[in-house]
Write the structure tokens for this entry.
Amino acid sequence: MRYRFVDKIVDLEAGRSIHCQYTWPEKLEIFQDHFPGFPVVPGVLLTEMMGQCSALCIESAHTDLTAAMLIQIKNATFRQWVSPGVLLDIYADVLSEQTKLARVEVRTEVDGLLTANAELLLTFETKDKLGLPAVDPILATYLAQSGF
């Protein structure tokens, strides 16, 4: 994945919940314009980050080479400015999963302070159709370190 917004998985209950972390690099070009003198992570990128974390949780429970893809954002709320260079904790809880759809509640925090939250809907597609590796490298690293 070219634009990866998850550095690592901290904790995982496959298909149920996940805790990820990410630090937005201060040198990203986007922060020159968003905003000059007051760099802020755009809400759309925070939402993509939450979607990627959610997808890792769902994919961890699938052995059929399925990728989860964000298709709907519900009730997204951005509560605090997020600056580049700070560690973000991302938490996702799968509320329900059906054959072609999963509903996930997700939030981000900085130092325990809620910065954003949303309910996301994800659908599934085969990884080969999307050109993705059979096992996500971040998920593979977590599983290897956890002894799975």
